[in-house]
Design brief:
The protein has 330 residues and is α/β, with parallel strands linked by helices. It has 13 helices and twelve strands.
């Protein structure tokens, strides 16, 4: 099959800077793709790289798109190299949307999509104490809070306030983005275990996400067997290659999968079906185009009814006007 190929880069400014251990993030850059097949079916896709997370850069993705001709084939789409995982996701998602029969698949999965619980992302630091209630009113019952951003003593104090402020039966995820030292990771895990053991909190600390840098995988593996509080890998499993490597090295804990940068959706499906891993699907702050494809995968592959990390709409202005302009341009 042959497809007419068009693309447009975009920039979206966050309403407020997103602060993590990787630094401040003010503008989300990406690329919207359009594939039109020989029967005039149109498929949309999105390339939304996060280079510091392990994907290609936006420049590398743009270079790849620019060197392609105006007409491409299935072979082009399914031979994108692994060094361009966000491109793999974007092109294959556009293919599925159009000729790949995603329309029928979406109908079958619509009920699963609506039943998925969502996790709301809280801002780092003390701002979380003022933000959670608004998200709670919107229906969120699972929250993610960034740690490893400020001094650990300050964050532990805020944590103490937060866990006693959140309503009973809330689930809280602590996301370090690989920003803790080994000693700090032990302190966080010990603190969570101690609170649970003493019955001091009515909420559930679901897991600590990526406490240590990627290169300290063995230490995270050791910590996962030393404490009751679960650990989830995120940056360590950003791409399919990393996902497979961590599994082969013995990780049987939680895998946080960001579809937008993990790579080929078809290969991800095959891996998850083969190994039945414990997954949490998460956003890369993509637009509604990339989000639809990512949620499709979450509905198909989520295990253990864990909340998906797509509660990020409050970080951007509404998309309608912006999308209309982009679509007209394409």
């Amino acid at each position: 099959m042959r497809y007419q190929f068009k693309f447009r880069p975009y920039q979206r400014r966050f309403l407020r800077s997103l602060t993590t251990n990787h630094g401040k993030w003010d503008i989300r850059e990406g690329i919207i793709l359009r594939l039109t097949d020989e029967t005039l079916k149109v498929g949309w896709g999105e390339i939304a790289p996060i280079s510091w997370f392990g994907s290609e850069t936006i420049e590398q993705a743009l270079d790849f798109c620019r060197q392609l001709p105006g007409e491409i084939t299935d072979e082009t789409i399914f031979s994108i190299p692994d060094e361009l995982p966000a491109c793999q996701f974007g092109f294959e998602s556009a293919w599925e949307w159009g000729s790949g029969g995603a329309g029928e698949k979406n109908l079958n999965l619509s009920s699963a999509l609506y039943s998925l619980p969502y996790s709301g992302l809280l801002p780092s630091g003390e701002a979380a104490l003022n933000q959670w209630e608004k998200l709670w009113q919107q229906g969120y019952r699972t929250f993610k809070w960034k740690i490893g951003v400020y001094a650990i003593a300050d964050e532990l104090k805020i944590f103490e306030s937060l866990i006693h402020t959140l309503p009973a039966f809330t689930k809280l995820r602590l996301d370090a983005n690989g920003g803790l030292s080994y000693e700090e990771a032990n302190l966080w895990l010990w603190t969570c275990d101690n609170l649970k053991a003493n019955g001091k909190i009515p909420i559930e600390i679901e897991f600590i996400e990526q406490p240590l840098p990627v290169e300290q995988f063995q230490e995270m593996l050791e910590l996962s067997t030393s404490y009751e509080t679960a650990i989830a890998l995120d940056e360590s499993v950003a791409t399919l290659g990393q996902l497979a490597a961590c599994y082969q090295q013995g990780w049987r804990g939680i895998f946080v999968i960001k579809p937008g940068i993990v790579g080929s959706p078809s290969r991800l499906r095959k891996f998850c079906h083969q190994h039945q891993i414990d997954t949490v699907f998460s956003s890369v702050f993509e637009t509604a185009i990339g989000r639809q494809a990512a949620l499709q995968l979450a509905a198909e592959l989520s295990q253990n009814n864990r909340a998906i990390g797509f509660g990020i709409d409050h970080f951007f202005e509404k998309e309608e006007t912006w999308f209309q302009t982009l679509w007209n341009d394409l």
